[in-house]
Amino acid sequence: MIDRPQPTADSARLPVPAGLGRGFVLASVFMCAACGLVYELELVAVASSLVGDSVTQASVVLSVMVFAMGVGSLLAKRLRCHAAAGFGYVEALLALVGGGSAMGLYACFAWLGGARVALVLISFTIGVLIGAEMPLLMTLIQRIREQDPGGALADLFAADYVGALVGGLTFPFLLLPLCGQLTGGLLTGVVNALAGGLVVQWLFRNDLPRRVRWRLLAANAGALALLIAGFLVVAPFERAAREAVYGGDIRVAVHTGQQELVLTGGATRREWPDAGELRLFQDGRLAVAGRRAPGAHRSFVRPAVAGGPHGRVLVLGGGDGLAVREVLRERGVRSVTVVEKDPGVVRLARRDPGLRALNGAALDDPRVHVEQADAFRWLRDRTRSGAPPYDLIVSALPEPAAAGSPKLYSQEFFGLAARALSAEGRLAVRAGSPAAHPRAYGTVVATLRAAGLPPCPYGGGGGAAYGRDGGGGGGDGFLLARRARTADRGCGTEGGPAPGKAGVGPRDRAEELPPSTLMHPRYPG
Questions:
Q1: So what CATH class is 300-512?
Q2: Full-model pTM
Q3: Residue 232 has pLDDT above 60, yes or no
Q4: What architecture is domain 18-244?
């Protein structure tokens, strides 16, 4: 039988029994771990929204934070003699930095023109503070009741990992949809400050000199006051930041739960005579560029529709209705299915007078049916169901250099699209500018060929209205792909698109690039 270790002379003088005190410390570990993981996920979400390329941003945040946690653990060795006070100060600072991290990144992006440096600095600071927690907590829990270090670590890590699970699930399913990034971060900071402050100010109050208790109280009160002040200025801060990014003529700014939609410029010149042309931004990416948008979509869609049968048409993306409008202008179109992941885009396209004027109320046409779904998943489910094929598939998705989802330009995705096509069916793809993004463009070509859909280039410069600067970044970049057995007639078939100046290039050069697959995405960020 093993005797319980007895309290030592250095044991903490707690206001509750030792067992209950250990429970309070472990509860604090649980809450702090949940808040810490929310900070990590929030940094990744904000950076992906502002900078793009979610894989890179997640890698930067996680690698910098893990490294900084090691630095924080080493620095915490100097605080072990004052573990309670040190833990209180660390939590107050962590609550302030972590809770305000989203606002800090957004402010740097809006007023300084970039957020990459701020992302690294904030990630490092949060990582150092999180890393300092565990050594201090280990010291505190041993002062309550000395026990085997392995058992104490097991208890701490168990509470830490369970808290991380709760924080990881709370962020996407509760905080983000109900509060948004800025308010959710501030709320997490408040919880963090309370969880850390209360355990020190109440549980270990007898071990702290009066002067230290007042200093800790002031630090926690200051952090809470700043976080609460942040709640009061979230709305005006967002308005000011959006105006700094998009200009002063913002008409609509909404968070749909999947992205931020910002509409600038006038609905009509009569209603908004001093506003600029209408522009639609999706997570900062220019998706619709006013007067250029109809012509750009016409250059992309009409040649593809005219290139063969077009009774049944599938539009992937295109929730703004502009591609659908061009499809419906061609005679013989019997039905159009639109697959749009974000219902907020469709609502805006149907209700906003400016967008509705641009798309000609195409989404309300009785021939149009809108499906809310991820394009990849929808195609896969449709293929399994054995539904009738389509004569034309128009991929109105963001070009690969700005898509943020390489699976929508993967060999598997194009393979699913090929299975949804009729024998004479075609797939129209925006591959991006071959001049601005030659590697991404060439990878699309190689991937289409690997999926059994040899492509032909077409267009007359309309591609310049797509992408980050109004579209695809300049030049053509439209590809029309057919099944391999029907594509041997060449690119210049009667009624279809002829080869453009920005063509695919020599066949062997395109084939030098490997195709992009789900397991090996090849598109540069």
A1: alpha beta
A2: 0.82
A3: yes
A4: Up-down Bundle (1.20)
